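[Discussion] Sanity-checking designs against the backbone

I'm trying to build intuition for which residues belong where. Below is a structure token string of 358 positions. I'd appreciate it if someone posts a full sequence so I can compare it with mine line by line.
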């Protein structure tokens, strides 16, 4: 079968091979035929080494498809079912799950260090234990979540990561209140989803911040009250909040510099929500006095910060009701052979989300 492979961490191009085999099928596993997958910035972060991932590997973790086969002991899923890929499944029995923090469950990561592909030259890993830039993939049955028939594969793929992450940051982690002021720094697919979440929660002002003009224009279409370049954020803070700062600021870039800017843009007693996935050697600094005196809440948000299965259901319900726009997030479509075009579109900021049709 065909799959896009990164041979060494640090390479900026993927090679599409037709001699890749999905391996590891057995008890508790399912084999999927991937139909659509989104390109998430985390895939690029894994390629360049910002996120740890053994190589060689098949990127992709935001996918949807149909079940080809199920292993022994798998219940609730049958061949032919339509599913989305959950890259961070919950086991339901670990301490995190029992505390109601299933998004912090690490059980799904236990298999991430085991190759789930192979080529004639050796083993190949799947990013985050998945690897959706492939025609077929073998994953844990916990990672295959059935989707209703009215949800297209491309929409379901986005719900599998970017949409859930952005919506959840606003609705689960920050718990944006009606009538509040919001700033979102970084307006790719996840940032736009955070904007939509803030709008659904009833925020009165939503300021989108991004250096790319096309993304700023898109942010307005998706519900931002205004959109500014980074150098104009301070002016927006002065105009909209009389210099006090925003009630909620979302950092969706994954850099300490933008997180520091976000902190300084948050009002005293307000909430900074860190959504971007950054590097382990990129440190964010505060002094102890400002932490104490300003009483700003600093809330990291992993995968939307809540029960992902409930978050999926909520995203579908909001989409059906016309409260959020998911199809509009897909600005580009490519075939697997054109995967490097998708990477370029992501790096330049041209695309919100590129759908790779497998």
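Best answer:
Here's mine. Compare freely.
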């Amino acid at each position: 079968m065909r799959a896009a492979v990164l041979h060494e961490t640090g390479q900026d191009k993927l090679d599409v091979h037709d001699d890749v085999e999905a391996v590891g099928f057995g008890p508790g596993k399912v084999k999927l035929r991937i139909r659509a997958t989104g390109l998430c910035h985390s895939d690029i972060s894994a390629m360049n080494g910002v996120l740890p991932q053994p190589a060689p590997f098949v990127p992709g973790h935001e996918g949807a498809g149909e079940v080809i086969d199920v292993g022994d002991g798998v219940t609730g899923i049958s061949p032919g079912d339509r599913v989305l890929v959950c890259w961070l499944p919950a086991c339901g029995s670990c301490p995190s799950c029992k505390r109601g923090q299933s998004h912090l469950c690490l059980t799904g990561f236990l298999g991430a260090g085991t190759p789930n592909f192979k080529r004639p030259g050796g083993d190949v890993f799947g990013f985050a234990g998945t690897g959706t830039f492939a025609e077929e993939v073998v994953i844990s049955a916990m990672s295959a979540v059935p989707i209703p028939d009215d949800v297209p594969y491309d929409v379901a793929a986005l719900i599998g990561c970017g949409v859930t992450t952005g919506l959840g940051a606003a609705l689960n982690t920050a718990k944006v209140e009606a009538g509040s002021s919001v700033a979102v720094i970084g307006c790719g697919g996840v940032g736009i989803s955070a904007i939509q979440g803030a709008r659904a929660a009833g925020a009165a002002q939503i300021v989108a911040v991004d250096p790319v003009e096309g993304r700023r224009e898109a942010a307005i279409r998706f519900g931002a009250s205004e959109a500014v370049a980074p150098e104009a954020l301070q002016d927006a803070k002065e105009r909209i909040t009389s210099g006090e700062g925003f009630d909620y600021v979302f950092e969706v870039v994954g850099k300490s510099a933008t997180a520091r800017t976000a902190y300084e843009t948050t009002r005293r007693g307000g909430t900074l929500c860190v959504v971007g996935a950054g590097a382990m050697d990129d440190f964010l600094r505060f002094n102890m006095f400002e932490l104490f005196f300003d009483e700003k809440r600093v809330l990291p948000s992993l995968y939307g910060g809540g029960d992902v299965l409930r978050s999926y259901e909520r995203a579908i319900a909001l989409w059906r009701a016309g409260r959020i726009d998911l199809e509009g997030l897909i600005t580009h479509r490519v075939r697997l052979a054109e995967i490097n075009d998708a990477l370029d579109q992501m790096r330049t900021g041209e695309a919100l989300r590129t759908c790779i049709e497998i």
